[in-house]
Design a protein that fits this description.
The chain is α+β, with helices and mostly antiparallel strands and about 280 residues long. The protein folds into three domains: about 120 residues, no CATH class; about 50 residues, SH3 type barrels (Roll), CATH 2.30.30.60; about 80 residues, Alpha-Beta Plaits (2-Layer Sandwich). The radius of gyration is 28 Å and the shape is elongated.
Length: about 280
């Protein structure tokens, strides 16, 4: 129903504009011009898709510039579409300026009435591109969803989660939610590996083992500090120590590899030195 009202309002205003300028409506909107428009849109879609894929391919070749290059892709895509649509209107239709302004106003009113939710998401996408709380390549947490931003489109933002699932989040939801950014445009980021220890564990030895394990990791970014923190926890009337090893990785994509690496190396060393005991019985 809303779409029908939009079409009716648009055609009425466009026809009125054409009469006021003594321009034949059929000359401006003809079947051949519509076919050319559809063809150019299809060609433009494939061109922009291939172009962005090429940019992404070269971005992946440089770890240092990957996030910066990917961050400009959404803006570049919008600029290209604006240029293409403007060129199609000017070259194929070339309407009088008064008629163009009338039609534009009619479209804005009709589209705003028919697609309010869609426009909210588009507005949210534009605000995200200018405000830039995160960029493509950043790792963000939105509600229960955590992952790397792979695309910021006008309607949704897509992230890939640790289990390789793609989550599409409406842009207005992002505008109205708290968003945690793990690396804020930087290639490196802080990672926290948690290990549970007996309450009587020698914290000095554990700290030394954990720091040494982090220092020799192939994922570590040594220009940032390595921190080991302990906290006493109680679960089901049982007290234990929670150790948090905080360090920075060279690339945000090493986050889970580093966590696994630290758990494996540190626990193995703690077992070998008798600081913790393997309680599994065969």
């Amino acid at each position: 129903m809303r779409f029908a009202i939009f079409v009716l309002l648009f055609l009425t205003q466009l026809s009125h504009g054409a009469e006021s300028e003594s321009v034949d409506f059929i000359e401006i909107i003809s079947i051949s011009k519509i076919l050319w428009t559809v063809l150019l849109f299809i060609i433009s879609y494939f061109f922009i898709t291939i172009f962005t894929k090429i940019v992404e391919f070269f971005a992946e070749k440089s770890s240092r510039l990957r996030i910066s290059i990917k961050g400009v892709i959404p803006i570049l895509r919008i600029v290209l579409w604006i240029g293409i649509i403007s060129a199609i209107i000017k070259i194929i239709y070339n309407p009088p300026i008064e008629m163009l302004m009338t039609a534009t106003a009619s479209i804005a009113i009709a589209v705003g009435f028919a697609t309010q939710d869609l426009l909210k998401n588009i507005f949210g996408g534009i605000m995200l591109l200018f405000d830039r709380p995160f960029k493509v390549g950043d790792k963000i947490q939105v509600g229960d969803d955590y992952g790397e931003v792979i695309a910021i489109d006008l309607r949704t933002t897509r992230i890939v989660t640790p289990d390789d699932s793609i989550v599409a989040i409406p842009n207005m939801e992002l505008m109205n939610s708290s968003v945690s950014n793990s690396n804020s445009g930087e290639l490196y980021c802080q990672v926290v590996a948690t290990i549970i220890l007996p309450v009587d564990a020698d914290t000095q030895k554990v700290r030394k083992i954990a720091i040494e394990a982090a220092q020799v990791s192939k994922y570590i970014y040594l220009n940032k500090p390595i921190t080991v923190l302990f906290a006493n926890k109680i679960n089901e009337h049982t007290s234990f120590l929670e150790m948090k090893l905080k360090a920075y990785v060279m690339d945000i994509r090493y986050e889970f590899l580093f966590k696994s690496d630290m758990s494996e190396i540190v626990i193995k060393e703690l077992l070998s030195q008798g600081i913790i005991v393997n309680t599994i019985r065969h």
